[in-house]
Every structure is written in C-alpha cells, then in structure tokens.
Amino acid sequence: MSGYTPMIQQYLSIKAEYQDAFLFFRLGDFYEMFFDDALKASKELEITLTSRDGGSQDRIPMCGVPYHAAAAYIERLIEKGYKVAICEQTEDPKQAKGVVKREVVQLITPGTVMEGKSLKENENNYLSSLEREEKHFALALTDLTTGENTVVKLASIDETVTEIYAVGAKEIVISSGFSDIILEQLQKRCAVAVSVSDEDELTEEIISYAEHISDPLLRKAFSRLYHYLKKTQMRNLQHLQKVKEYKLQQHMKIDLYSKRNLELTETIRSKDKKGSLLWLLDETKTSMGARMLKQWIDKPLLDPVEIDKRLNTVETFMNSYFEKEDLREKLKEVYDLERLAGRVAFGNVNARDLTQLRRSLEQIPSIRELVGSLKHPDAARHAEKLDPCEELTVLLSDALAEHPPISIKEGNIIRDGFDEQLDIYRNASKNGKTWMVQLEQRERQSTGIKSLKIGYNKVFGYYIEVSRANLPHLPEGRYERKQTLANAERFITPELKEKEALILEAEEKMAELEHQLFLQLREKVKTFISRLQSLAKTISELDVLQCFATVSDKRHYCKPQFTADEIRLIDGRHPVVEKVMDSQEYVPNNCLMNAERNLLLITGPNMSGKSTYMRQIALTAILAQIGCFVPAKEAYLPVFDQIFTRIGAADDLISGQSTFMVEMLEARNALAHATSRSLILFDEIGRGTSTYDGMALAQAIIEYVHKEIGAKTLFSTHYHELTILEKKLSGLENVHVKAVEDQGKVVFLHKVDRGAADKSYGIHVAELAELPEQLIQRAKKLLSKFEAAGASITREQSDVSAPQTIYPEKEQLSFFHEEEGKQEKAPSKKEMQLLKEIRELNILEMNPLEAMNELYRIQKKLKK
Ligand SMILES: Nc1ncnc2c1ncn2[C@@H]1O[C@H](COP(=O)(O)OP(=O)(O)OP(=O)(O)O)[C@@H](O)[C@H]1O
C-alpha cells in the first residue's frame, strides 16, 4: 500500500471495510470506482473504463459517474442484487490539509433502498434476518420504507423458505456461522441477496422495540437485523415501529409450490403479475392499499368472525354504490402516507411531499364522515380509527405555500403570514423591487429616454440600460459605465447599488430563513410519524375492502357462507380464466363435497378443463378467506386450514429438480401435513413416470388420503382404470368433464358432471394441435388395437357387482395390462411380490432420493 498516493491509500483503507459493496468514492463532481470495482462496474453499468496513476508501477483501473446522475446507476446495481457504499468528502477541500477527509455516509443494499425504481410502489421491500436453533427458525422482517417490523417462528426449512419467498424478502442478514446447506436452498428458491453480520447484542434500544417479544431466538433475529440497519443507514430510524410477532397458525397455510401453482401473485411461466389473482383483484386506489392486498392474499384468515367482518364491509360497500365510488375518488387523493413517514424520519422529504401530505390529510374528515355513515357496524367502525391528525393539517396549511418548488433551498416554500421575520424580508425585497420600477419611471422622465430600462443579471446585479442611439441624451457624470453591449451601454448609480444591496440581502436571508423554517417544520412532522402510520393502516384496509367490493360487483360474485364440513358451489367459475376469456363463453360448474364425499376423482379429455375446475375451487376458498366475495351464484365452504396442490407445468427448473421429483416432493408435502380440514388438489399425479408406476402411485396416494387424512381432495387423472375405486372407497365420487364428438372432431363442453369419462380424446387433441396426418392415423389404429385388448378388462370390471370381486385381495391386478397387442394375463409371482413391496413402502418416511432409488429398483426388477 505504501507505493500508492495518499488518496489511493485512503480509498483502499475505506474499501477494506466494505469488501462486499461497490465503493462510490467522491472526487469533486464524480463518484469514482477503482481496481476490481471499476472493472466490474464498467461492465454492469456499461460505462467507460479508464485508468489513472496511483503511485504504483501499473496504472489503476478506474471508472466513474457524475454525482448528479448517480441515483440511476446506484439503482441499477441494487436491482442486480449488489450493495453500494456512498463515500463523501466530509470536509471542505479548501480547508483540508493533505487529502480531503472522506467517510462512508450510507450503505445502500437491496433490502434497505428508500427510493428509486427498484422500489416497487405496490410492494413491500423487506430486509430479513434468520436465526436457527436446532429445528427452529426465527425470521425477522423490516420494511425500512414503511417502518413495519415483524418476527415469526418457523418449524422447518420448508416453512422458512416459503415465508421468505411469500413476503418477497430482498435481502437476508445472517451470522457468519450460518449453515451453508440452508443458505443454498434459500438462494435456489428465492431471489434474495445475502449479507453477513455478526453483531447481535441485545441493547436497551433493541429491547424497547421488542418489548412484547419474549422468545430469545426471535429477539436475536431482530437484534441482528437492527444492528445491520444501524450500521448501514447511519441515520435516524425513528419511524421503525414496535416489533410484532405473527404466527403461521393464524393464517391459512399455502406452501411454496402451491403459491406458485395457483398463480396467486405472479404467473408460473412469465412471472408476471398480469394473469395472477393479485392482478384480477387489484382495484385499489392507493399504493398502501395495493401492498396490503398482496399481504392479505398471502395470508388468508382462519377465524370466521374476522373473515365475516371483512365480508360484511365488502357487502355494505356493494350496497352503497355511490358512497363506494365517492370513497374511491377520495382515496385517489391520498398519498403514500406509510412511505412518507419513513422518508420524514430519514430527513429526505421536500416541501412538495409535505404539500401532498397536507392534501391527503384534508381528505380524511370527509372519508371519515362517509365511512361513518355506512349502514353496517363492521363497516362504520373503520371511521373511529381514522385519525385526521388535525393539528398537523392546520400546521401544514398555515406553513406551506400553495405550490412550493422541489428544492428546499431556494425559497418560496413558506406561506406569507407564517413567520414575522420572513414577512419583513419579503416586504423589503418587494419594496425594493417596487422602488426599482419607480426609479425606472423617474430616470425616463429626467432623461427623456423612453427606452431606458432597469435590468438585473447575476454578474453585475441591477443596472440601467440605454441604447447606443440614446447615449448623447444621457447627462454627464451621474452614471457609471459598467458594461458595453453591441447596441447598448449599461450603467449603475450609487443609489441603485445601495438599494440593490438591501434587496439582495433580504433575498438571501429570506431563502436561508425559509430553509430553516422548513427544517423546523419537518422536525414537527416527525412527531406525528406513528399517528400517520396508524392512519395509513386504516386507509389501506378501507382501500382493500372497497377494492373487493368493486371487483365483486363488477364480476357478479356472491357472498360466501361458512359451513362445518361442506363445499357447495353453484355455478362456480375460475376468476382469472373467466376474466381473460369472454365471460359469455365461460361455462360455470357446481361442486358438491361433504364429510361423506370428500374425494372427487376427475376424468375427462385433455384440454377439457380439469385443471381449471380444480384451481377454481382453491381460488374460491382463498378469496372467501381473505374476505372477498367469490365467483359463484351460491357458495358454501368450510374454512380450510391449508391448501396443497400438485398441478402440472410448474417444473422447478431453477432448482434443478426433475419434473417427476417435483411431483413427488409436492405430493409428499401434502401427505405429510394435510389434515381433515385441508384442501388438496392433485392434478394427474403419476403422469411423470411409466404407466404402471404412475397408476400404482396414484391409487396408493388416493387410498392414503382417503384412509389417513380425510382432506377434501380433488384428484384428476387420465388413468380411467382408477374410476373403479368409487366402488371401494366410500368417500370417493367420480366426476368428469364432458366432451362430445361431432363429425369425428372433439367438442369440449367444459361441463363437470357425475360419473367417469368414457373416452380420452387424446388423439383428437393431437389432431387439434395439427400433428402430421400420417402420425394421427397410425395413433388411431394403435388405439383400436389397445381398446380391443383392454375390452375384456373393462367388461370384467364393470359387471362385477360385489366389491370383493372387483377388489379382491389382489386388487392392484386390474391395473396391469399386457403390452401392445397381447392379451391380458394374470400377474406373475414376481409381480405380486413387487406389488407387495410397493404397498409396504412407507413413502412418508423416505426422503425424495430414497423414493426415487426405490422406484428405480422396482422398475429394474420389472424390466428383467
Ligand atoms: N369452464 C370453462 N369454460 C370455458 N372454458 C374453459 C373452462 N374450463 C377450461 N376452459 C378452457 O379450456 C382450457 C383447458 O383447460 P384445462 O387446462 O383446465 O384442461 P385440462 O383438462 O386440465 O387439460 P390437460 O388434461 O391437458 O391438462 C383452458 O385454458 C380454458 O381456456
């Protein structure tokens, strides 16, 4: 290091403290980067890489961005998951002896950004920290922009990953000793930046935030997070709220796979909001409401009383159309109070922001009155919680000018009459200017030069300008020449300069005083932060509830009723598919399930609408439990504790899992955790492996769910052989999605009916997809061959009346067909042995790899 110039030495010693961040090193009007930072940043930001002499033998790589344009570059780096340390000159270069003093004033990280494009208006931006103690995890979450602080205890890595994914945490802080394996899992599944910080000491300050949290592991997680915030932000964090604990058991559990499969907040394929349930529902008018909507979708309620409170308010809004529309108009005027409170604490709001705050607050009394007048008590109770913060409104409207500028240093911020001294300066400046106008008149009269004028510029101040042609009319000696232009001369007089000094002094003092007054005002606003935060919460709730009412009204949804154990949906629809296609074309369907009939086996051709039907039930349950009306004519539903899905097309390519493995993992998750109060959707389980394997697994899974779990289950399959299970399992009912053949072509009716489907129509679908004609003809031939071979089985199955003949001890036999063209024959001893082995497998005790190995072994034996 000694070979380097003092400035580079200074750079290197600061950089050593911020190894994992880009160091933006302030040099005059630029932020410069050196060495590896420069090499990397020039690529990431597509800026020119140069070099400079730094005292060493080789020149040092360097690149830089102008300070006034830095925000956009910082944003780009943050979006890519990097951190940026802002290093400023902290002394006046003119006063400095040697190298100017420099210090890092803020470390910006993905979880701590306060502004810019990487901060989505409608989404929370969470910084998290994770602790582990044996099998338990503690997760702490802070949204620095809103000040929200929460902690949650989690019982497994699966739950933890699901929660971090669901809240969309941008960054996670862990100790240096944290398990690599867990970290790897996390990074595979969630796009989260990792930061290491070993500081976790429980200080008085931290205890004051976490006074209601007794669990030491939760406190530790918050503690680590708080230290990290202090270290990176180096400023006031006054807007941080008291830490609240939430429990997963308070909400319907939806695992990571199911959240993705059901496309709650983004679609599986394009990861877009468009096409998701969130997209369908988002009729909110404020960013705060939009953020809360996402949180609600993520955490449906379990308590019917709480759900009903929301539903009653939604219903009231639907019955009070004009009030609702009025409220929507008013909400449009309400600014993001939650994030504003955060920026007030950070000290980076300007007068325009405060004017927006004033306008927002001015809406509150009329919103309060409107909501208070609603007929239902559950709706009206929101009015009491709306605190209009009157003192603040009065203060802001007294203090702030009507249209203040963005800059807080150039005046015109404070209203006349707010501060006596400011008014004096203003008058001095105003009088001075009037005096100038009068002087112009006087000079014109005394000289007789009509075009004489008084002007102002920054270099010479006030001057008297006379055109060249009029110069002879000017009296001698009274005027001092200051500037010569092409066609005119500019003059000053002692009197003019005297007045100018008064005006400029007043203006300078005025700007300085206005700045001071504004800073004082901002300090006063700080004392309202927590009241603004509670107000923001109530406004967000109202916004989400009016949003539910708007969607429910527009799309003709009905109010769901909760039952002990019955699903009865009349004319139910899939909310998103219905919106995307013309509602006229959507075929509504019923769903009837209860304690005795809790398993629907759904058959039907490809493309007929099996998946849509299943998803529709899950989305309806979620809508009901977040307190929204549902897409049906009538809806009776139990309160589900959890939803599990195994639905095709969600191949987990990112985590490098095979399709079949994902299928098995999802099934395992459902089987291990579902209860009789859960809802399970299994879409074509087993299709990812050979027919025999697949059918065997499918039947075993159905039987397991039926006997051991009793959850409401919808199971779609192409294995028609499974429909016979209706005769054996009392809770299972066959339904099918109808299709008919019309002149050799398949027509999908999308109608769900009782009983099993008679045909698959797979070849028709292939025909629709325009596979080569020759291939289609060959497939048709092969199909008739298979059907002829299989006819005997179907006959055998269908005319057996006594269940024991359909399901003798060797019940699985009926699954086995011979290969193409051969007649069915009884299974061999070896096959029987294998079946027994499959049956005795304890899938739930195995890890996925063991399950795969086991399957592989069985398959190998069968092939021999
Ligand atoms: N009730 C309905 N009314 C109108 N159109 C529907 C309905 N249900 C489904 N569809 C249409 O049919 C398409 C196929 O539906 P879906 O994916 O649910 O079929 P599927 O039976 O699960 O197919 P596969 O077996 O190939 O997975 C949907 O994209 C939708 O356009």
UniProtKB/TrEMBL annotation:
Gene3D superfamilies: 1.10.1420.10, DNA repair protein MutS, domain I, MutS, connector domain, P-loop containing nucleotide triphosphate hydrolases. ATP binds at residues 604-611. Residues 496-523 form a coiled coil. Keywords: ATP-binding, Coiled coil, DNA damage, DNA repair, DNA-binding, Nucleotide-binding. One of its GO terms (cellular component) is cytosol. One of its GO terms (biological process) is mismatch repair. The keyword DNA repair applies. Residues 678-694 form the DNA mismatch repair proteins mutS family domain. InterPro entries: DNA_mismatch_repair_MutS, DNA_mismatch_repair_MutS-lik_N, DNA_mismatch_repair_MutS/MSH, DNA_mismatch_repair_MutS_C, DNA_mismatch_repair_MutS_clamp, DNA_mismatch_repair_MutS_core, DNA_mismatch_repair_MutS_N, DNA_mismatch_repair_MutS_sf. PROSITE patterns: DNA_MISMATCH_REPAIR_2 (PS00486). GO terms for molecular function: ATP binding; ATP-dependent DNA damage sensor activity; damaged DNA binding; mismatched DNA binding. It holds the Pfam family MutS_I. Belongs to the DNA mismatch repair MutS family. This protein is involved in the repair of mismatches in DNA. It is possible that it carries out the mismatch recognition step. This protein has a weak ATPase activity. NCBIfam families: mutS1 (TIGR01070), PRK05399.1 (NF003810). This is DNA mismatch repair protein MutS. It comes from Metabacillus lacus. The gene is mutS.
